[in-house]
Every structure is written in C-alpha cells, then in structure tokens.
Amino acid sequence: MLKNPLLQRLGLNSLRSRLMLLVALAITPIAIMTVLGGIREREAAIRASEENLQRLTGLAAANEAQSLERARQILVDLVSVPDLMGPTARCNALLADVLDRNEGYVNFGLIRLDGEVTCSAVPMLHPVNLGDRRHFRRAIAERRFIAGDYVFGRVIRRHTINLTYPVTDRAGRVVAVVFSAMDLAGLDTFVNDINLPPGSILETADSGGLLISRRPDPERWFGKKIAPDLLAAMRHPAQHPLVLRGEDGVERLHAFARVGGPSLSEYTVTIGVPVETITAAARDAQLMSLLGLGLTTLLALLAAWLAGDILIVQRVRKLMETARRIAAGELQARSGISYGNEEIGRLAAALDEMAATLQAKEAARSQAERELRAADQRKDEFLAMLAHELRNPLAPISTGAHLLKLLHSDNAQITQTCAIIARQVEHMTSLVDDLLDVSRVTRGLVSLSTGVLDLRKVVDDAAEQVRPLFNARRHKVVLDLPPGPARVKGDHKRLVQVVANLLGNATKYTPEGGHITLRLLEDADGAGWTLEVADDGIGMEPALVGRVFDLFTQAERTPDRSQGGLGLGLALVRSLVELHGGSVSAASPGLGKGSSFSVRLPRFEHEAESPVAEAVRHAAQAQAPLRVLVVDDNLDAAHTLNLFLAAGGHRVEIAYNALDAIEMAKVFAPQVCLLDIGLPDLDGTELARRLRQLPQTRDATLIAATGYGRQQDRDAAREAGFDHYMVKPVNTVQLSELLAEAGAGAAR
C-alpha cells in the first residue's frame, strides 16, 4: 500500500486516524470562521478606539497649542513695552517681572541681531550668544512668531523650547528678537487630568523629531530622538491612526495631531494605547468560542474512532494483508471477502481481479525485461565498436597533420592548414565522444581535462568551426574581444564546444543576412568573464526563455531553416558551463526581436607550478631520446606515429601484432610502449600483462592508444598494468609530455 509521506509525518497511518482527520477537516471551516470572527472583532475594537483616541490626541494638541498661543501673546505684549529696548537694567527688571507673573517659563530675554543676549530675566554669569539657534534666525528671516525645537538652555541649564518674536522699529526693520524659554515639564499638563490605560504613552516631537514632551517619565526622554517608524507616521500628511510596535516591544494604536497651525508651531502630538488593552474583551470572547469548539471536536473524533473500528477497520485489515502478500510475490493470494455492492466488497473484488491479472502479466514482463536488457547490451557494444572504428581513421590523419606541421614549420600556409586539420580532427573526435557521452551528459557525469586557457583563443577556434555556416547564410558576424588575455581554467575542447554550440544556435535561428555579435567582457567586480552571443533572429517567447536550456527543447522551425538537431546543444552548454563553475542565462525581447545568451566563467587566479610539473616541463625541453615500441594493426596509424616520434629524436620499432611485439621487446628493451587494445591475436591488455613479466620491459612506461573510450575499458587497462590511457586520435601534445616525463624518470 502506498503511503503518503505527509500523513506519515502526521502519524495518520491508520484508517481510523484518517476518519478522525475527515472529522477534523469538517470542523475546520467552523474553526476558521471562529478565528476570523475573533480577528474581525479585534479590528472592530481597534476602529472603535481610533475615533476616541484621535479626539483625545486632538485635545492634548489643542492644550499645547493654547500654551504656545499664550506665550506668543506675552511676547507680542513685551514688544510694545518701551523698556524692552531701553537700558539693560530696566530691561532685566521688566523681564524678571514678566517671569514672576507667568508660570511654566524659566526665562525671558532679548537677543541682538548679532546673536548676543543683551538682557535676561535670569542673571547671566557670562556672555551668551544665540546666533546659532535656528529659531532666532527664522524669527528674523520670517518676521513672525517661531516655536523653536528642543534646546538645553545655556543660561538656565534646563530642558526647554525657545519661543521667539521679532522686535521692529518704526520703519519696520527687525532690530532684535525677544524670546521666552518654556519649561518642558509643564508643556502637557493636560494629560495629568485624563486617565490613560496602563502602558499608554503621550509624546510631542519638534520638527527635528526630538521629544519635547513625554508621559510617563518625561525627564528621561527630553531631547531624545523619536523612533524612526513613529517619526515617519508623524510626518505623513494624512496622519491616520495606525498600530506601531514601540522600542519596548509593545504594540500600540497611535493617533496624531498637529499642535496649532503652521504659523504657530511644527510640533506633533501622538498618544499610543496598547493594542492588548483595546482588544482584551474581544480576545476573551474568542477564547471562550475556541474552548467550546475544541470540546465539540474532541467528542466528534472519539465517535469517529469507535465507529471506524467496528464498521470498517477489521475488514480493511484483511484487504491489507492480502495486498501485502501480493506485493511479496504471492500472486495467487485472494482476500476471501464476499463480493457485495458496498464499497469494501467491490474493493475486494478489484483486488482479487488485480492479482489474477498480475499473474498473467508477470511472465510477459519478465520476458520483455530480458529482451530489453539484451538489446541494451547490444546497443552499448555497437556504440563502443562504432566509436572505435571511427577513431581509427582519425588517428593517422591527426598524427600526419602534426608531423607535416613539424616537417614544414617554415611554411606558413602548410602550418596553418595543418592546424586547421588538427582542430577539425579534434572536433570530429569530440563528436564521436558525444556519441558515447549522451547518457553521461544527462546524468552530469562529463569529465573535464582542465588547464589555463585564454578565452579569446577559445572564441577563435569556435568561430572557425562555425564559419562555414556563417558564410553559407551570409551572416554578418562581429567578434568583440578584449585586447589582453582573458584567462580561465577549464577544458579547451569543452569550452570550444560551448561557444560553437551558441554560435551554431544563433545561425539556426537568424534569417539569412542577419547579424550575430559575440562579446567577451570582464565583470564589473573583476571576478570573472562574461561571454554574450546576441542575434537579431526570430527571438523567443517568454515561456521558451525559461526552459531553453532543458533537454530536447527547440523553437518552432520555419521553412527557411533546414538545419536539424535534437535540442541537445543548449542543454549540453549548461551542463559544461556548470562543470566549469560558471552559469548561463538567456534573454529575448520577444518574437522577431532576437535573442541573447550569456555565459559567465570565473577568472583564473595564478597558481604556482608544482615541482613535478616543472620537472616534466624541463624534461620536455631537454628532448631526451627514448626507445619506443609502437604496436598497432592499423598500418597508417602505426607509420604516422613512427614518423612523429622519429622527428622528435626517439628510436622507434613497430609491431603489427602482440606476439611479434613480445619477441621484439626481448631484443629492443623499449623504455616506452605505445599499445593498441584491439589487436588481431592478443588484445592489448593481455599484451601489457606479458610485457610486465619480461625483465626487459618490467619498468617500461606502458601507454594505451586505442579507439575504445568507455570507463570499463579504462579500468581494465589500469588493472592490466598500463600507466596511461589515450583515446585515438592521440593528442600529440599530451604524448610529448608523457614521453618527457618518461625521459625524466629514465634520467633519474
């Protein structure tokens, strides 16, 4: 019986428990409605409190505005008194008398235009200059009453707000500024007359967001910055009531009100009441509803448990046991339950019928499985043999090209032609490898031969491969490459395959005479290189962009685009790029607007050369001559390899079968043996084992040079005693390095 992982995690593995689940699901809508009802009641309580809280906040703001208005009137009256601009002693006496008559103020004073305080109700112990005060400068500039921001008084050393008013002469020019310093402790005395719920706060902030009033505990908060989210709500033009979490972690419903109009002050008052207090009644009602619902659910679940066991569970257990026996292979098992019209009877009949059908199909399935396994084995053997037969003719072509290049290194045209032949042979070899790599690609098992590469060279080689397609369709191709090296670490062949696939894809989907651009750019952070291939072809729909790198995905074909394909190219691009630690992406503005594909690869960071690699490099430069035995039944391959090795100064002997090779090794005592695996008499692995037993070749370097490239072939060669394994056509650069390494070992 299939088991649902979710039900297993919930412990619902029995029918009774699932019946109980059905009961619970039936009650779930009621529970949801109860919870939603509680939420609505909570929101309703908050909405009902918003109006009262807004009215209370408005009263507090009006009370503070009244205090500011009274201060403005005092300053207006002072301006009209002649003694204010008279001798300092008379001015001081006047202001001291005004201070005595008005509670809630801590000082009155007169400021000259240079900022010096000329007279003060409170004696000054030293000169005071208030020229840097913003309220002073605004009073002069705006020629009106200004309610300043929070200050800590330089004369009186108290928390205050300074209220200023300009003094003008008969010509209307501002000659001084009179100010009053209001004690912040008395700014919001109104709140003392109301009863706020526990945990509530009342705060008044100036234009800069500093607190000038706070209840409770005002002295500790004067001059401190208000919380950022609360300040943002104060400055919002609408100033709607909203719920905010305070710095103490308590959620409060806040209402806001301006203190007077813009001509009076820029202060804002807020009163916050804990949401918990507002919603207490709604929460208690919801709790009682949930308790009642829980009791009802418990009784319903108990009834489901008892009824399920009596009416259903016992018969279902018999069905389960029969199903287990069938799953264990007892296809002759039957339920033994009478077939009735009710559901369990019909289920028993279906189970017995299934068992009978399975008995009939099992024999057919086993036979089909054996045939499929045999066909799959024949397919693998055919692909391996096909790859071997395709590689054999490529080997002499590749070796001959390298030899021709070596013998005519002074002829630029021959050298270039040889390089082209070598690259194309290498490309054909990669296609043969892909013939065997399809399953490895889909499973992410492609292996890489990495080294330090210049992406510019990768682009050049890829463009050379695709150039016939460009010419055939008369595409205008632009390669935008950086002037300096673009070094990465990767597999040259695979990266050429990536770029060639992208360029080939662009040619397929770009109309004749279209434009294709390849750009190679360094990332802004310098951590990698981005290669972008863009065209003005048929473009892609948004749905195709998201899956264009999936296997077998292709755009719709048109009559003018005859090139085929199985939709493997871009999937292979993504797999190979990810194996190199990079990433790919695609983009298109839409159908008919072209497409672009981007590949990002990490930059190569210089690594120090290892001692072994350095020794091999020096040995390669030394070109130490070696005794080399070549064993291959392919005459062309053997002779071209002989010519290449002889051109490198090595002594070479050739054998065309295994038995001749053994006799020749006893006389020649080769230091390196290049052995084909598929020989006419003994295969290469058996030849390697016998060479290891000869004293003349016990310590020789054995290199397999074969057309077989499967992993099992490599494993068999390693077990037979081979030191290295090379797939035809032999990479002459790699072969030279192996010979240099063998020469270095012989020298030691």
Keywords:
748 residues, alpha+beta, 19 helices, 50% helix
Characterization of the model:
- The chain contains 19 helices and 22 strands.
- A hairpin with a 5-residue loop joins strand 14 (515-522) and strand 15.
- The longest helix has 65 residues, at 15-79.
Short description:
By secondary structure, this protein is of the alpha+beta class. The protein is built from 19 helices and 22 strands.
Q: Rg to the nearest angstrom? A: 46 Å
Largest sheet: 5 strands, antiparallel
The separation of the N and C termini measures: 69 Å
Overall mean pLDDT: 80
The coarse overall form would be flat
- DSSP helical segment count: 19
Structural class: alpha+beta
Number of strands: 22
What is the topological layout?
Layout: H1 5-9, H2 15-79, H3 88-101, E1 105-112, E2 117-120, H4 134-142, E3 146-152, E4 159-168, E5 174-183, E6 201-205, E7 211-215, H5 228-235, E8 242-245, E9 251-258, E10 268-274, H6 275-278, H7 280-327, H8 343-407, H9 412-442, E11 451-454, H10 455-472, E12 476-480, E13 487-490, H11 492-508, E14 515-522, E15 528-535, H12 542-545, H13 569-579, E16 583-587, E17 595-602, H14 611-622, E18 627-631, H15 635-647, E19 651-655, H16 658-668, E20 672-675, H17 684-693, E21 701-706, H18 711-720, E22 724-727, H19 732-747
Parallel strand pairs: 12-14, 18-19, 18-20, 20-21, 21-22
Antiparallel strand pairs: 1-2, 1-5, 3-4, 4-5, 6-7, 6-10, 8-9, 9-10, 11-13, 14-15, 15-17, 16-17
